[in-house]
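sorry for the late reply, my laptop died twice this morning and i had to redo everyting from scratch. anyway the thing you sent over, i finally got around to it. pasting the sequence first so we're on the same page, its 295 residues, then the predicted structure underneath. double check i copied it right bc i was rushing
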Amino acid sequence: MASNNEKGKKYEGFSKEILLLQNLTWDYDSQNKNIKFDKDVEDHKIEGISGQKHQIDIHLISSKNPEFHLLCECKAHNPAVEKTHACSFVTVITDIRDKHKDWKIIPVFTAEDGYQSGAKKILHYYKIIYFEMKDYRNVQRTFNTNITSKMPKFEELNGILEDGTIVDRDVCLINYSRGDSYGITNAIKSFELFDSNNKKIENLIDFTGEFHTGDRCIMIDDSDEFYEVRTNKKLVAINGTVVGNTTCNLGSSQTVIKSKAVTNIILDDGNIYRINKDGTCEKYYDQDESKKIFE
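ok and here's the structure:
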């Protein structure tokens, strides 16, 4: 299990990847809009006016507008961000801003599990942009499917050829229309089925007792008939006795569906944006709808 520190570092890397996306732009004020950040500052320790150095999770700058600095705090832990965390970050930003008068600072807070109401009020009041976003890059859903077949269990099973010859269940038949070889059990579905009282049987799966076939059902075309391989004589009827049914395991399959989304970003204004792996960005007004990341 990953430690909290490992989880935090992973979330910082993810947050930085999102904040550096070139389809994300930032407004500092009415005169400075659509700012893009493209460079990560390696030294994340920034001194404030108090003389204290603060460890900043993410520090980004803009090549085009070097006076702008994005300073971000990241929280990957449960529960939601509390008021004390928000107050602490406000203090850090204020200390740094008072020291670096020439910096145009855009403060950002990212959290994996959202914010308590008190934290939201504080961050909003002090104009700190807060994101709620989860890492969906490696999320996947696995479906395991077991393929089974339910078949009648025969006590007796015989076929009758066109000259009256009776053949048992092990006879090999060929169907020229389908171009393949079959056994009698495969040929049964090509005939009408009746019980000993000549009552029609819809399906042998749930039937027990003696049965016989009636007219041939046309499955593909008029020439869709079965012939005994050795004599090349046509199969004209089948009879037998069903004593129950059996289930055969035909195998299993596994389907993996991967998330098409990188993340959903819930902004402080309530808007939800999904960033997809194909580079597109979609806006949602319904939070439940935005969580459908596999569609």
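Residues 144-252 form one domain.
thats about all i looked at so far, will dig more tmrw
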